[in-house]
Each structure stands twice: as C-alpha cells, then as structure tokens.
Amino acid sequence: MSAIAYLQRHPYSTAILSVGLSLLLMLALDPLASMTKTPFILFFGAVVVSAWQGGIRSGLVATGLAVLISNYFFLEPRYFPSLDPSSGVRQAVFVLECILISILCGSLRTTNQRLDRNLLKLQASEESLRTANQSITDILESITDGFFTLDRQWRFAYVNTQAEKILGLSPDTLLGQSVWEKFPQVKGTIFENNIYHAVNTQAPVVFEFYGIINLEQWFEVHINPLSDGLAVYFHDVSERKEAEDALRLSENRYRTLANAVSQLMWMNDAEGNIQFFNQRWQEYTGIADLELGVGLWDNVIYPDDFQPTLEKRSRAIQAGEAYEVECRLKGFDETYRWHLARIVPLKDENGQVIQWYGTAMDIHEVKQTEAALRESEAMARARAEELEIFMEAVPAAVWIAHDPQCQQITANRAAYQLVELPLGAVATATPADEVYPFPFKIHKNGQDIPLHDLPMQKAGRTGQDIEDEFDFVFDNGKIRSIWGRAVPLHGDNGEVRGVIGAFLDISERKQAEVALRESEERFRTLADNIAQFAWMADEKGWIFWYNYRWFDYTGTTLAEMAGWGWQKVHHPDHVERVVEKFRTCVEMGETWEDTFPLRGKDGQYRWFLSRAISVRDETGKVLRWFGTNTDITDRLEAEQERERFLERERAARKEAETANRLKDEFLAVLSHELRSPLNPILGWSKLLRTGKLDAAKTAKALETIERNAKLQTQLIEDLLDVSRILQGKLSLNMAPVNLALTIEGALETVRLAAQAKSIQIQMVFDPTIGKVLGDSARLQQVVWNLLSNAVKFTPEGGQVDIQLERAGSQAQIQVRDTGKGIPQDFLVHVFEYFRQADSTTTRKFGGLGLGLAIVRHLVELHGGTVEADSPGEGQGATFTVRLPLMRVPSETPQDNPPGTSVAHLTGLRILVVDDEPDVRELVAFILEEAGATVSVATSAMEALNLIEQSLPDVLVCDIGMPKMDGYMFMRQLRTLSPEQGGQIVAIALTAYAGEHDQQQALAAGFQQHLSKPVEPEELVRAIAALMNQ
Fold it and tell me: Residues 954, 1026: contact at Cβ < 8 Å?
C-alpha cells in the first residue's frame, strides 16, 4: 500500500503528521526566524495538505491541532496557554481561514475524484454513451465541470449548463456556431494549438489555460477526439493552482532553511540515491552532482571510516531505524574533518522506508579536544606513576602526613625498612589511638625526644621547615643515627594541611667521619715522624709534595724540589738512569722501584731503596703517584697501603658530604614544585571528562594543562642542566654568534607570555656590535632566562627593555623591567643555586631557583660576566651580561690599533695555563691568530713539567686552579734559575679582578694582571708591550 493511499484511508493521520512536521520545522527555524511573529505560517500548508488528502474533516482536525500547538509554542507567553485577546483574534482569523481552506480543498478533492471516475467511465464505454445520449446528457448537466462538443466543422454541437455559466452564453447563441467565430480571441493561443493537436493525433490532450474567454481564472481543459468531432470539458482549478503556488513557496522556504543551517543536509531514496543536498554540503565537499548516487559516499568518507559506517547503515536499513555515526568527511580541499551524522527514515503507511533524511554536524574541534584531553590524562598518569616510582626508588625514607598532627601517614618502602616494620604497618609515632608502634626509642644527646617535638610533628604544629639529627635506639640495643628534614604542606588559606618528611640513615657516615678524623690525624703525625722519605707526584710524575724528613735530610725547600727538582740531590753517575726508569714507569703506569744515592744537606750521599706506586680511579686511570725512600722495604709497603686507604677515606667523605648537601637542597622544594603543576593538570582533566564545560572553559582547561606540563618540563630541564654543571659535564659548541639573532630567538619564546600580561617589550640593538665566540643555543638560554624572569616578575601593563650595545671590547646585553625589584640584601645571593628572594611556602612565584645560577655559569663559560642591580623592592631590576667580542680582521693597515697586528706576536712561544678547557681553548685561539706558537697546560704541575722540557717566551696563567693555584705556581717558578725558566715573562689572566688580587699577583711574580673577560686585542697588546720592554 502506498503512503498516499494509506493517508487517504486514514485522513486523521494525515492531519496529525502534517501538523507535527510543521511544528518540527517551525521549532527548528525559531532561533533563526523568530516564529512568534508568524505563529501560523507553516500550519496553513498543514491544513491544505490535510484537507486535500483527507477531506474537510481532516482539514478541520489539522486546524484544531494547529491552533492548540501555536497557542502553546509560539504565542506569548510561550509554553503556557495564551488568554490574550489579541492572540484570540489572531487564532479566530486563522481558524476561519483554515475552515474555508478545508471546505474549498475538500470540494476540490471531491470534484477531482468525481471527474476522474466519470472520465474513466466515458473512455471505457464510448459505444454505450452513444446509445445512452440522454443519460450522458443528464450526467453532463449534473457535473460541476463545463462540457461541450464540436463537430468536424468546429461548430458547437452540445453545451452543458455548467459551460453556459462559465462562458456566460446561452446554448441558443452557441449551438451551430463555429468556435473560432464565436471566440476569435482564442486563436493563436495554447487552446488552438492543443485542439488541433488532439485532432491531428487523435489522442486526448490535457492542459491548463488561464484567462480563457476573458476570465481571470485557471482552467484545466480536457480534449478528447471523437469520431465525429471533439469533446471538451473544463473546470476551475484556480484554488488548486494557489495551493500549488503555496506548496512551491513552502518548498522554497524549506530549501532556504536547509541552505541556511551550518550542518550538511541531504535526502536520498530507499535505495540510497541522493535526491537533494543543501548548499552547505556543496560548499564543504565541492560536489554538486546528484547523479553520483550511492557511489557518492565512496568519495567523501575517509577510507578507514567507510566500512564501519557502511555496516552501521546496513543494520539501520534492515531495521528501518534512525542511526548515528561519527566519521571523517573529505572537503573540497582534500582535507578530512570529523562529523557526527544522524540519518532518519521516512516511512509510508505500511511502515516501509521511502526516503532517508540526513544531517552531519562538524565535531572536528571536539574530537581534537578529546584527543588532547586523552593525551593530558596520559601525561598526568605518567607523572603520577613517575612520582610513585621515584618514591619507591629514592634511597631516602619518605613519610607523607595528611594532617598537621601526623596521625594519618603513608610511607615508602625505604621508610618501613628504616624502622624495621612490615609494609602497611602503622607508620606514625603519633597515631590516633595514641599507641606507640615502633620497636625503638628516639633519642637526642642521650635524652628521649617528646613525640610532639619530632621533626614532622613539630613542622605540622609550627608551620616551619624542621631539620634535625637524632638516634633510633632499638629494643635489641642497636642504634641508628638519623638525619631528617620535614616540610609543612599548606592549603589555599595558608593553613598546614600535612607534612612531608625525608629521613636518611647516616650511621655509616657518622662512623666514617670519626674514622676519617682519626685517620687524618694519624697520617699527619706519621708523615712527619716516620724515618722514611715520603713524596707524591701527579699522573705524569711531577712531584708536588715531600714529607718533613725529606727536607730535613736534603736541606732543600718545596720550591727547589717540586716537579723534577729532585734531580739536584741525585748523584751525577745515577741521575740519568733513575730519571729514564722513573719516566718509563710513569708512562707505562707501572710500579717504580730503584736503588740510588741521595745527597744530604751535609753534602754526603746515602743509598735508599725507593718505591713509587700509582693511585687509580675506578676505571683504572692513574691519578697520582705515591713514593717513599727507605732502607726498610716492608715498612714502605705498609705506608703505601695506608696512603691508599686514606685517599679512599677522603674520597668517600667528600662524596658523602656532596650527596648530603645536594639532598638537603633537593628535598626542600622538589615535592612542592613537582606537585603544584600536577594539581591543575589533574583537576582540569577530571572536569573535561565530565563533558559539562563550554567551549571557552574547555579552551582555558587545555591552556592550563599545557602550561603546567611545560612548567614541569622546564623544571626537569633545569635540574638536568644543574646536574651537568655540578658534574662538570656541560659542554659548549663554540662558533661565531650574532647576538641580535640570538636575542630575537629568545624574544619569540616569551612574547606570548608578555602579551597575556599586556607587557610592552622595547628593543634597542646596535647593528655594528659584531660577533662573539660562543654556543648560540646556550646564549639564547641565558637571554631567555633573563627575559622570562622579567616578564614573570613584572605586573600587568608593565614594560621590559632589552638593549644590545658595545661596551669597550665587550658586547653588553641589558634586560631592564618595571617589576617587583630585588631587595638589597639579596642581590649578593641572586646567582646562587636554589636561592630565591622569597623562599617561604607562601611565596607568590614558584620555581627551584636554578635559572639565574645557570645563567651565571653559562656566561662565565663564555668568558663573560653577569651582574644584577635593583634600586629596591617595587622599583624593577636590571641584569647586565658582558661577553668578549671577537676580533674583526681589518682590511687596511691603518685600521689596526698599535699592538694588535699579528706580526707583534709572530715567532713567540707562549704557554697558556688554565684548568677551564673553554677559556684555555679561547686564549690559545686568540694568540695563535696573532701569530704565536701556543702550548697549553691544564694545571700548574703540568706547566712546570712543560717548562722543564722547553722554555716558552711568555706565560699566560690563571689564578684559581686546583691543587696548586697561580700564586703558588709563580712563587715556585721564580725560585728557579734563569736557565730553568725562573725569569719567564708572565701575565696573570684571572676572574679575580679586585685591587687586592692585582697586588697579590704582582707580589707573587707576575709582570701584569689582566681580569677576565679580556678583549683579544687587549691581551695581544699586553704581551707585545711586555716583550718590547
């Protein structure tokens, strides 16, 4: 059964369906077209359709439903029955119009049905009609259509009463008259064309004609050829034409609505062939061809989504139900975007699907947000897992109290091991039931510590960081020395909400410190009182220490004996053999043993059995040599073993002290700085999962998650840089650097943060500044740290100035802000590790206090300096970085200042001594560029060895060096004879730049004192000037 037949048999279903569809369409259009202004506009169409399909009663039912629905949904007040008089008048007019429409459409429907039945009877029984002419005449007279016949000469043969009324003429004036003579106005019209066509083809013709016989009405005309002429009947279809016009208008409105919405819309038949899609579809896909049919989807749906979508569609078609699917659709630019498609079936009266209506809404941003949320959640989980792993992996015992009284505590595995309790046992000394759970007492200086004065309990009570050392005295008599630090956790209002405590078993360290003190004291006493001579040399055999017995016996000093000076007290007949054998053993890393005579201070020689052994690190590399001269071999070997033990003791103590200090600094702030970014990440992630946030809140959530994730990444990077610095593993890739480009690169990374706070950044660059020799990435890190601090501590609407200019032989970078400033008493600490002006738990600005310490180290590695200055709090701060500029070769001799020409150092042999490899390489490069022949030494002992082998013309030496500083080195050098290098020209090149430092350098024997950083030309001029003197 077709849908139309079903609706004709169930006329009230037609009324309900048409009114329901009109309601849905008006509700959809309401946000765009404000349907309250025209509350009945689409219901006219519903009444027309209902009356046309179901008759007058169906039209009246549709009218009643439309009135009720319009009153409730579109008349003020909305969603409540309207009793307003003006609304009542509007509804009454609408009801009257709809009743008239229902009557007219019902009559037209009845007329059409009757006409169709009569026409069928006429066509089926042509012969019977001839024999029953009177019956036909009666029928023709009773019908509501006009009817007349024409003979072969185009004369009227019959005219019924309705035709007389329509034409306005009596039969007497028409019968026997030619139609062309009676109505000449129809000649040349569609009427003439069709009437001739019917005669010529002997086939019925149906057409519509307007204004026939000067009537401003539409008529549907039927012309049927007869054996003896033509039969013509016609009826007024003006109302139907008006209804069709209204229907076309409604369809146009529907198409306009479909084209106005932002969603993709389409309609296809039961087989899937596209019958319509809206303008938005064409704009997005670029497809306007309806003939593609089902194959259209192959070109639009993303390949990976096509099969799942097809399966869902197949199941929906089988069930005849609506369905939804998420898939990616290809746009005209060949890019895919996620859409949520919903497809709804339209069924006939038998429940068979006749059409499908679909919409697709762009959800690409939503999918991206969901993906970002999943990524953020995964990152947050990973950070939480890393923290849990850290808690279990860290060798310290860690307790976390969740209340100030420390009654609810969780602890890591190391904590349970420290207190010798099983995992999961009560881990607090002050539980809620007040039953002390530990198998030990806690003592300090031999006295019990009250439980409320334990570090964590005291920190929770006072809100202050607590650090202390105490002992665990176990019931079995065992004692453990403990170091502990407790840091309170504060809530949003500043109240203490918990405590974190970290504790270490320092029993071994305590025992080692006692043993080390005792061992050092024994060694000093032993070294000065043993009968043997004892001495130590570096890895190359350069002796830098003798015991008292050696000097007492030889009557010499350390300055005379340092390095290879011991040859002076050897017998001439043996010294060459001894030196060769000792050098060979040093080079091979083998133990040296030999017997030879040594001259005493009285000029007499005595024979000594001498032995030297190497001291190696864990990799087997020789660090130094330890030797003795004695007549007793067993005693010598015992002392060698004792020396190795003492060296290990020193190394262990130094390592323990370093580790202790780093843990103190690390544990103080690490927990807070790592947890703080996690709180907004986890919080916003959970809110995003609820799906209740609007677009603005979602964007803010993602921005917050991203910003805090980046903060954690930067904290980790700073920690890694500090680790490299402390281990001496931070290296630089030196190359000429354009500072203007480096500063601009750093500016790009902070520009968004500055714009977010409406901070103006002013730049002043000197284009003729030249280049510096350095690591571009590390220099950019320096500028970024200074700029990010300036933006961070500058309030909204402030200003940050960055200036690049030349200051003598240096490039000067200044970063100046209008922020909170720096207290005067903190300026001296601003570049220290883990130092901040506000280090309290209520501080406004976070961080580990590493940035400026890293800046200072990087600048110094480049041979530069960095300074901080501030008038005081609230008055901004200025940071100044100075870096040595590279020497720019001149093209003409006139451009070279005196003393800077390469020719001034040509042929000079210069020895550069500096323990910093970057500075050493830079100075060597500058001097080689000036024409000198340069050799380098990493320490004073190595320099003495090189001088012994080959005398340089000039010595350029650092002051601050391990083992033997520049002052000691120069004093020892000046004790040598001129042939041994005692009068070499020497320049002190050091970062100790004070007046006292200069006087001390000159007093030690240096001819000139230069402070780092030094301009290359200045260094070359200084050397040339000394050589000219």
Answer: yes
CA distance 984 to 973: 9
pLDDT tens digits along 981-993 = 899 999 999 877 6
The pLDDT assigned to 211 comes to 67
DSSP SS3 for 851: helix
pTM, two decimals, is 0.29
Which residues lie closer than 8 Å to 355 by C-beta, 6 or more apart? Answer: 267, 268, 269, 270, 275, 345, 346
**CATH class of domain segment(s) 125-242:** alpha beta
Q: Is the pLDDT of residue 185 over 90?
A: no
| Rounded Cα distance, 486 and 511, in Å | 24
Query: In sequence order, what E strands does 703-784 have?
Result: 735-737, 760-765, 772-774
Helices (H), 603-694: 633-690
DSSP letters along 457-516, please?
A: HHHHHH-S-EEEEEEEEETTS-EEEEEEEEEEEE-TTS-EEEEEEEEEE-HHHHHHHHHH
Q: Which residue has the higher pLDDT, 667 or 144?
A: 144
In whole angstroms, what is the distance from residue 908 CA to residue 886 CA? 22
Cα–Cα distance, 264 to 341 (Å, whole number): 9
Q: Is 977 left (phi over 0), alpha (psi -120 to 50) or beta?
A: beta
b/e burial code for range 682-708 (CB count within 10 A of at least 16 → b): bebbeebeeeebeeeebeebbebbeeb
Whether the Cβ atoms of residue 771 and residue 886 lie closer than 8 Å to each other? yes
Query: How is domain 899-1028 classified at the CATH fold level?
Result: Rossmann fold (3.40.50)
Ranges of each domain in the chain: 3-111, 125-242, 261-362, 394-505, 733-884, 899-1028
Find residue 1010's DSSP bridge partners: 989
Would you say the CATH fold of 394-505 matches that of 125-242?
A: yes
> Which one-letter amino acid corresponds to residue 235?
H
The CA distance from 278 to 170, in Å, is 55
Question: 374, 388 in Cβ contact below 8 A?
Answer: no
Going by DSSP bridges, is the β-strand pair 878-884/466-474 parallel, antiparallel, or unpaired? unpaired
Residue pair 302/336 in contact (Cβ under 8 Å)? The answer is yes
Q: Cα(first)–Cα(last) distance of the chain, in Å?
A: 123
Q: What is the CA radius of gyration of the chain?
A: 52
Higher-confidence position of 771 and 722:
771
* CATH code of the domain made up of 261-362: 3.30.450.20
Architecture of domain 394-505: 2-Layer Sandwich (3.30)
Residue type, 801: D
Contact 721, 854 (CB under 8 A): yes
| CATH placement of domain 733-884 | 3.30.565.10
Q: Quick check: helix, strand or coil at residue 835?
A: coil
Which two structure tokens, joined as six digits, stand for 950? 């080959």
Which pLDDT belongs to residue 725?
64
- Condensed to tens digits (0 to 9), the pLDDT of residues 189-241 reads 888 888 888 888 889 988 887 766 656 678 888 888 988 888 887 877 777 77
The answer to whether 12 and 61 have CB atoms below 8 angstroms apart is yes
* Side-by-side strand order, sheet with 229-236: 156-159, 146-151, 229-236, 218-226, 205-210
